[in-house]
Design goal:
The chain is globular. Strand 4 and strand 5 form a beta hairpin. The strands form two sheets. The chain has a five-stranded mixed barrel. A two-stranded antiparallel sheet has the order 1-2. The chain is built from six helices and seven strands. Helix 1 crosses helix 4, helix 1 packs across helix 5 and helix 2 packs across helix 3. With 170 residues, the chain is an alpha+beta fold. It has two domains: 96 residues, no CATH class; 64 residues, Nucleic acid-binding proteins (OB fold (Dihydrolipoamide Acetyltransferase, E2P)), CATH 2.40.50.140.
């Protein structure tokens, strides 16, 4: 098996686990928290979600799961306390990565030699290897994105929510 296939297999395994954790964390959210997240990012109007694409719902959930409301813990942390994984397991590694993930503004530099992309974190000027099969196939060199990145084994992963960022912001 080649390096690309091994990397994709590892990424897909970790992506499955992170998606399971994120689905679990959603169960620790109230409808009010989801509504507030949508309102904060301008996707709530006249008492309902206003989405231009289904992908925007991922952004609403990302904000709702990862951000805190005044005086409350994050839904992700409530989930982690209620469902602690076995120490040292891939589930524990993935949950820790989720809990320590950070929202970043990145610019696509090039395709990675193995798989995924090489991006520039615009705040730190650090080049990062990002694995995301969707972005690998659709992102263009120079494209700017806002996304939450998780540090993995040698590479970073997104949480699945990414929004285009204009040249002015970059």
């Amino acid at each position: 098996m080649g390096a690309r296939q091994e990397t994709l297999d590892r990424y897909r395994h970790l992506r499955t686990i992170t998606n399971q954790h994120l689905s679990g964390a959603l169960k620790h959210l109230s409808k009010t928290a989801i509504k507030e997240a949508a309102r904060r990012i301008g996707l709530w109007s006249a008492g309902k979600l206003v989405l231009d694409s289904p992908d925007e719902l991922n952004l609403v959930f990302d904000v709702a799961v990862f951000d805190t409301r005044t005086g409350q813990s994050r839904a992700l942390d409530r989930y982690a306390r209620a469902h602690p994984p076995v120490a040292g397991s891939d589930e524990a590694v993935a949950l820790d990565a989720l809990q320590h993930g950070r929202f970043r503004i990145i610019r696509v530099l090039r395709r990675h030699a193995i798989a995924g992309l090489v991006v520039l974190d615009t705040a730190t000027q650090e080049e990062l290897w990002v694995m995301d099969e969707g972005l690998e196939t659709t992102a263009r060199t120079g494209m700017g994105l806002g996304t939450r990145l998780l540090r993995g084994n040698g590479f970073h992963m997104t949480t699945g929510a990414a929004v285009p960022v204009t040249v002015t912001v970059l």
